Amino acid sequence: MAYSYKSSISFGLVYIPVTLHACIKNNDISFNLIDKNTMSRIRYKKTCVDCDGREVKNEDIVKGYQYQDDSYVVLEDQDFEKIKSKKDKTIAIKQFVDIKSIDPVYFNKTYYVVPTGAEQAYSLLMGAMESKGMAGIAKAVLGTKDTLILLRVKDGKMLLNTLYFDDEVQESPAKSIKPVTSGKELELAQNLIENMIDDFDISSYKDEYREKLMSLIDSKISGKTLELPKETEQRHVGSLMDALIKSIEFSKQSNDEDKKETKTRASTKQPVRKSVSSKKSTASKTSKTKTTRKTAVGS
User: Fold this and answer.
1) What distance in Å separates the CA atoms of residue 129 and residue 152, rounded to the nearest whole number?
2) What is the pLDDT along the chain (299 residues), one digit of tens a residue?
3) Which terminal residue of the chain, N or C, has fewer Cβ atoms less than 10 Å from its own Cβ?
4) What are the residues whose beta carbons fall under 8 Å from the beta carbon of 194, sequence distance 6 or more?
């Protein structure tokens, strides 16, 4: 796996050279824009507003900051390089914090941290962080940007999360609503939650849209027609109480079906297929539940 950045971690006077490898790969399916008549790719030309359509070459394009109407100050590569320093490129741990104290809304990208030397110091830092249950907070320049960083240990590996700065996270537009603390509806909602509690298994969730899109592309290539199951319309109920009661009934019914399926597969020695209620996180059953059993409050 190619690394995204080459850097180093400083912990007091301890120095650990590392490389950062992206944890996440992009699974988006890309498309080209083409002319439907000639099936040729569409190409875009870079022109300026006052050039009467004249194409501008890449070497003539610079970065400009608009500080007032029609007025720009130009910044070049050497200008950006001036405000960086070698110290900025080092991931210098400033403090250690309980990771639970950081709201996940601040988490951005995740990288694997791989030592390229000083393995003993790397191992020592991991062990100390894990034994204390702490994560390290640092700042560094990744690429050209000043970046806020969190270092953490999980399953014997060190991970680096880039964080959003406080002024990048917007306030919620939702008005302040006090949670319900008593009443029959709360009891029903708690009952429904109890019926849906299960261990989280991320591998059971699939990108169903991507799978259907790939099936559609394959069918187009082979000249076949793709048939997809029709989705059942959402059921509406008259009140919140009715919605809760019916939702509990559906969850119990789904639990019973899962138990029968598990017993049948056990008797025939077939592997148990995870489902939404006995394994409520399973994506395929989740889709089925949404389409055939979805209950919502209607007006």
Assistant:
1) 8
2) 788 889 899 988 889 999 999 998 888 899 999 999 999 999 888 998 888 888 999 999 999 999 999 899 999 888 887 777 666 778 999 999 998 999 999 999 999 999 999 999 999 999 999 999 999 999 988 877 889 999 999 988 999 999 999 999 999 888 887 877 778 888 888 888 888 788 888 888 788 888 888 888 888 888 888 777 776 666 666 677 788 788 888 787 777 766 666 666 666 655 544 444 444 444 444 444 443 344 444 43
3) C
4) none
Strand partners, 45: none
With a CB cutoff of 8 Å and minimum separation 6, the contacts of 214 are: 29
End-to-end Cα separation, the chain, in angstroms: 54
Whether the CB-CB separation of 116 and 19 falls below 8 Å is answered with: yes
E-state strands within the chain: 5-11, 14-22, 63-68, 71-75, 91-97, 107-115, 135-142, 145-154, 157-163, 235-237, 295-297
Q: Which structure tokens are listed for 266?
A: 């056990």
Non-local CB neighbours of 127 within 8 Å, separated by 6+ positions:
none
In terms of Cβ atoms closer than 10 Å to its own Cβ (0-12, 13-18, 19+), residue 180 is exposed
Q: For the chain, what is the total number of helices (H) and then of strands (E)?
A: 6, 11
Q: Which domains does the chain have, with CATH numbers?
A: 5-26+83-168 (2.40.290.10), 184-297 (no CATH)
